[in-house]
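The material for today's practical consists of a large collection of protein records. A record pairs a protein's sequence with a compact description of its fold. Instead of coordinates, the fold is spelled out as a row of discrete tokens. We will come back to this pairing of sequence and fold again and again. Here is such a record, shown just as it appears in the course material.
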Amino acid sequence: MSDLPEFETLLLTRTGRRLKITMNRPEVLNAFGGPMHSEIIDALAFARDDTGSDVVVITGAGRAFSAGGDIEGMRRVIDDPTLFDKEAAEAKALIFTLLDIEKPVVARINGAAIGLGATIALFCDVTFAGESAKIGDPHVAIGLVAGDGGAIIWPALIGLHRAKEFLLTGETLTAAKAGEIGLVNHVVADDALDAAVNGFCDKLIAGAQPAIRWTKTVMNMELKRMAHALMDPGIAYESLSVRTEEHKARVDAFLAKAREKRK
């Protein structure tokens, strides 16, 4: 009998000392709708405390890592902005639970990592992207503040000016561009992604576990300091932007365009 928890929107598997968390809504590119927002926090908490693993891999099922926020869900929040309060609390819990995992966390970016999807990937310790993957944080494109962690991790990885360029425009980057500027660690051919991730995980598993974990703990102290300083104001500003007419108009335009495509 497996000791791994079961989720509606996530799949947890273990290979040796490697635990994999797969976002499992491929039909919507693993967008964060329904229970996935809360389930991923529970999965990360399990990974943090799991005595059966030394490395955690986060990835997505199908052709995307995660497309980020669910636009239909955003429309419901526009109609009832108090729904954002629950999402805000979950956003904080997600980031801090991820940062509290002592063992290394590796992102296997197998396709689009957008918005919250990009934030989760970039808060991992080491990132591998397939060459066809894309990564971006387009909060501003739908009239929202990038308050769920993007404004913390992008500057930490690529510097303040570069991060401003991409977060203020919402531009989506190719994997090659992300690798070139240091946003992700490794870009490999799509059919070489598993071998690259598995090889790196094997190297970590063969290492001195206490030394690896405590070295990561020290390095994450600065990220945690920034997260504690910036998550609350970031979410507060995002909460304000949820209530703007600009956000409503952009979400409605996006949904109208999507309906036209389906005709």
